[in-house]
Amino acid sequence: MFHNPQLDTVLIKLASRCNINCSYCYVYNMGDSNWTTMEKQMTEPTMLAIAKSLTELADFQDQRFSIVLHGGEPLLIGAKKLDFFLSLLRNSLGVDYPISIQTNGILISSQILDICSKNKTSIAVSIDGYREINDKFRIGHNNKGTFDQVINGINILKSHPDHEFLNAGLLAVIDPSSDPEKIYSFFKELEAPSVDFLYKDGNHSILPLGKSAIDSTEYGEWMTKLLKVYLNDKNPLPIRILDDMLKVLLGGTVSKEGMGITDYGIVIIDTNGIIMKNDTLKSSFDGADKFKKPINIKDGKLLDFIGSKEFNEYREMQRPSSEKCLRCPILNICGGGMILHRWKDGSEFNNTSVYCADQLHLVENMKQLISKFYLINA
Ligand code: SF4
């Protein structure tokens, strides 16, 4: 047993299927087949076992952890089961542990929102930008764009009496061919409280969509343009990834996966109760998110597991190991990126991020922009 392991996030996959079929999705369209044999929705015995284990975890560790309900599409479990599970979690943990749902927004209804409001659970919606950009990849099983349905869900969310608590903002996957200024203005028009941006999944062996070569900087250039728009806005829409990077650049610390050099503890509980590694690893190779000796949450051994050698090795995987990263002047900001972005057939995860050139480009520009900002405002 390793000494006092701490979790930051418990990600729970309530449903193994999705009501849409984003073409870039790591779960269904990047080589992993685990979902095909998985039960479609989490059962009540699994939910009861999770509540019990998380109560033990809360008693055991010093720091609070966040709970993120994910999928597939988590709202596919329906209002009744969602209420059952959220009430169970709140009865077990009280109100101090943040619970959020990451959804594509299509199944948001006033009934779902009432349940979330009652159980102090916020909702973040995935949307990639204006119609033309969102509908490029975020499509339904009928191959049609999902933009109108998502906007409808966001409007229902915005009109709920408890929207200020419920609305946890937007999550967008970057399309470097889009106009960052237009994307930013569009999200401001949606009156989102904040937005976070993700780099697309991919690695050294399968380049992310929109990246032409390992040393190309399409994503870094896109982010730099976004940063300029952001810094010039007197009434900015908070952008989490940029705020976190700026905070570290100015001497602070951030405990977030794929950023900085602090350890970040996350477990994924799959729909059938099996404990998994971060599910984005599925994009590296089939089964990359599985532990060698996995446990099921119903075994009641979560604490033993997060204290085990195998879990400790998984946590250590997050630490950058490539020589270039270890000598990198911006290691404290970049942290070597997300584990999935480091994969390369042959050298496995012992590499820089596939976004290394993008990160160097962005942080260099960030430094220059911040120095100018200080000079102007000195
Ligand atoms: S910028 Fe590149 S070398 Fe530096 S830490 Fe990030 S991935 Fe590693």
From TrEMBL:
Gene Ontology molecular function, alphabetical: 4 iron, 4 sulfur cluster binding; metal ion binding; oxidoreductase activity
Name by which UniProt lists this protein: Radical SAM core domain-containing protein
Domain Radical SAM core intervals: 4-232
One Pfam family from the record: Radical_SAM
NCBIfam families: rSAM_YhhB (NF041707)
Annotated InterPro entries: Aldolase_TIM, MoaA_NifB_PqqE_Fe-S-bd_CS, rSAM, rSAM_sf, Sulphatase_maturase_rSAM
Source species, domain of life: Bacteria
Cofactor entry: [4Fe-4S] cluster
Keywords: 4Fe-4S, Iron, Iron-sulfur, Metal-binding, S-adenosyl-L-methionine
